[in-house]
Amino acid sequence: MKKFIFSLAAVVLMLLSCNQQQPEVEFGLSESQIEASTEGGEYPLTVTCPTSWTATIDSGEDWVSLSQTEGNGSADIVITTQAGKKYAICYMTFTTGE
């Protein structure tokens, strides 16, 4: 069975206001990469974040989708893949908000 790999990139933005540094946001993902079957499927992912966040998939990757692309606080989301890809790498970016 051939597999393909998702690389999940977590990007944390720190905003500066009035020359005072804001505290770091503790952000985490339950997986840093996922090996998915070429038969397609669903793969759970837990987002741990005390603030708002957004998730984006590289443009042109229509064979993969997220059950949720934004939230406020932690969430359990599902990555869904369609069958047919023999080998592919898909990058997703998670960004924390304010």
Range of helix content: under 10%
Structural class: mainly beta
- Spatial shape: elongated
Order of the strands making up the biggest sheet: 5-1-11-7-9
What is the N-to-C succession of helices and strands? EEEEEEEEEEE
Give an overview of the whole structure.
This protein is mainly β. It contains no helices and eleven strands. The strands form three sheets. The chain has a five-stranded mixed beta sheet, with no helix packed on it. It has a four-stranded antiparallel beta sheet with strand order 4-6-10-8, with no helix packed on it. β2 and β3 form a beta hairpin.
Which key terms come to mind for this protein?
11 strands, 98 residues, mainly beta, 0% helix, five-stranded mixed sheet
In short:
With 98 residues, this protein is mainly beta. The protein contains no helices and eleven strands. A five-stranded mixed sheet has the order 5-1-11-7-9, with no helix packed on it. A four-stranded antiparallel sheet has the order 4-6-10-8, with no helix packed on it. The protein has a two-stranded antiparallel ribbon with strand order 2-3.
